[in-house]
Amino acid sequence: MNVGVPPERGTTTNKMDGAGNVVQAAELRDVHFHGVPDGGSQPGLVSTIAPVDLLPGKVFGREQLVARLVEVTQRADGSHVVLHGTGGSGKTAVALSLAQRLDKDFPRTRVWWVDGSSENSLSAGLREVVYDADPHHRVEEVMRAWRGEGSAPNLLKKVLAEIPGRWTLIIDGADDQRLLTQWRPALQHDTGTVVMTTRHNKAKEWSRCAEVHQVSTLHEEAAVEMLRALAPGSGTPEQARELACTLGFLPLALRLAGSYLSSVPSLPTTAGLALPESFEQYRLVFHERFGELDQLHEIGSDLAERDLLSRTWELSLDLLADLGMPWARPLLRWLSCFEQAPIPCDLANAAILTRSSLFKGITGMDLIHAFVFLTNFGLVEQVSVWGMRSSAATTKCWVLHPVIREANRHQPDVQQDLQAYLALCYATLDGYTSFLSAEVQQDLSTWAVLSPHCEFVVEWIHRDRARLPVPEDWELLGTKLSCVVARFSTLSGQHDRAEAIFRHALVVRLRHLGETHPEVLTARRNIVLLRWDRHRGEQSLAELVLLAEDTRSALGERDPLTISCQLDLALAHAQMAEQDAADRVVDDYRAIVRLSGELYGRTETTALSAQMNLVTELGRREDESCPAELLRLLTMIEEVENAPDIAGQVPFSLGKLRAAVMNLLQNSRGWSEPQN
Question: Name one Pfam family in it (predicted).
Answer without folding.
Answer: NB-ARC
